[in-house]
Amino acid sequence: MISALLAIPSFAVWFETVKTNLKIISKTKKVILPANMNDGISFIENLIVEKSGKGINIFSSTCTHLGCKINQEKNNKFICPCHGSQFALNGEVIKGPATKNLKQFNYSQDKKTGKIIVYVG
Ligand code: FES
After folding, report:
1. C-alpha closest to that of 85 among 108, 101, 103, 106
2. What is the pLDDT of residues 85-118, one digit of tens each?
3. Whole-number Å distance between alpha carbons of 48 and 51
4. Strand order in 77-79's β-sheet?
5. pTM above 0.90?
6. Taken in order 89, 93, 98, 104, is the CA torsion positive or negative?
7. How far apart are CA 120 and CA 105, in angstroms?
8. What spacing in Å lies between the alpha carbon of 73 and ligand 1's midpoint?
């Protein structure tokens, strides 16, 4: 009887952990990008895709200042149209008012199709 009573709190902790992990998994969204993307900068959905011979970097196009959508690249900088924040091609903020770098997303590539699966969340 006592051991059953002691098990209740640990079950509650386990249950909360599982619930939290399920929320995280359910919030993760996948965006599928085509396999045959050209090198260069692409603005797709809410993503900035920077592709070169060195690899692919994928960032959120949401400005870290107040959330405007970054939709242009000029002189190797991503420029926010709202207040002029600028970000380097590696996502680092180089001119404010933004103070945080662009969020970078992980991705994988489907071995059969070559499509790029971006994990957004
Ligand atoms: Fe981008 Fe303000 S929202 S600089």
Report:
1. 101
2. 999 999 999 999 999 999 999 999 899 998 999 9
3. 10
4. 72-74, 77-79, 86-88, 93-95
5. no
6. positive
7. 6
8. 15
Q: How far apart are CA 43 and CA 121, in angstroms?
A: 18
Of 61, 77, 85, the residue with max ligand 1 atoms within 8 A of its CB, to mutate for a pocket test, comes to 85
Residues in CB range of 20: below 8 A, 6 or more apart: none
89: enclosing H helix or E strand: none
Q: Give, in order, the Cα–Cα distances in Å from 62 to each of 67, 74, 104.
A: 5, 17, 11
Q: What is the pLDDT of residues 14-71, one digit of tens each?
A: 446 545 444 444 567 888 888 888 899 999 989 999 988 888 999 999 999 999 999 9
**Torsion sign, CA atoms 103, 109, 113, 117:** negative
**Which residue type occupies 4?**
A
Structure-block tokens of residue 91: 């996502």
Does any ligand 1 atom lie closer than 6 A to the CB of residue 116? Answer: no
Specify the residue for token string 């870290």.
Answer: 64
